[in-house]
Amino acid sequence: MTNDTDRIVDVEKPLKGVSVLVPRGGKWGDNVSAMLRSFGAHPVIAPLINFAPTESAHELMVALLKLEAGEYDWLVVTSATTVDVLMGNSIRPAPTTRIAAVGETTAAALGLAGIRVDFVPENDNSARGLVKELPHTQIHGRVLVPQSDLAEPTLVKGLTDRGIDADFVAAYRTVGVPVDPVIRDSVAGGSISVILITSGSVARQIAAQLAPLPESAIVACIGPRTAFDARAAGLPVHLIAETRSASALVEAVVEHALAGWPSTTES
Q1: In degrees rounded to 5, what are phi and psi of residue 238?
Q2: In the beta sheet, which residues pair with residue 221?
Q3: pLDDT tens across 174-229, in order?
Q4: 32, 22 in Cβ contact below 8 A?
Q5: pLDDT per residue over 109-124, tens digit each?
Q6: Are 93 and 110 in contact (CB under 8 A)?
Q7: Which of 75, 81, 131, 122 is nearest to 103 (CA)?
Q8: SS3 for 73?
């Protein structure tokens, strides 16, 4: 398969010879890298964000103790990092508290921690999707929403607008990680040609540390909300995964390659 520049695409290994920036480490980064390698790509893991303890430690502990005591009817978890915070503080939700999770990765982290998950949005794995899909007849009482200190108010505002008593507490801080100069030069020089963006925080770090990106770079975002955040950070967006999952993000890149690497006009 070829495109306008007669670039040959190996249908078995459509990403052969392509270097892809993977902006998260840990199990997520390893999993994505394995998927990319199966299509012939050379993944470059460069975590651009990390997580630090919240500066509101007292408020967090008060909220977590209330959660453990059963004072909240629902707990909404939006990231695996929040699960780490629960486990790190030896907190388990009361048996009467129901659990909602945003995204398959978060739900899996809760499951691995032995915490039952009662609801995961099916069609839109985002805070907006959770608010939209939460069953009206089942949501009542108080809801605890522990998130990053940089989390947008979408979730709490959406719940509040539905008449739900939702409490936000900063569970952790999201901080930037300086990128290795070698990787920065590889992006600038075009040898890393595909950049994955997995959150608004990652988008802002890429904009701050790697922009301006070369025109040949292809930016792939994990869902529409992340694409919105990337554009707001001043980045171009070429590919958007249909769902907020690692497999969908890799699939978007693979499909683009199989299409012959068409024009990088923004999506």
Answers
A1: -110, -35
A2: 197, 240
A3: 999 999 999 999 999 999 999 999 989 999 999 999 999 999 999 999 988 899 99
A4: yes
A5: 999 999 999 998 887 7
A6: no
A7: 122
A8: coil
Collect contacts of 54-57 with beta carbons under 8 A, ≥24 apart.
54/149, 54/170, 54/171, 54/172, 54/173, 55/149, 55/170, 55/173, 56/149, 56/169, 56/170
- The two three-digit tokens of residue 80, written as one number: 């695996």
Residue 230, SS3 per DSSP: helix
Question: How many residues comprise the chain?
Answer: 267
pTM here is 0.80
Average pLDDT (22-28) is 90
Phi and psi angles of residue 247, each rounded to the nearest 5 degrees, phi first? -65, -40
Q: How far is CA 46 from the centre of its chain?
A: 15
Among residues 224, 198, 170, 192, the alpha carbon closest in space to that of 56 is found at 170
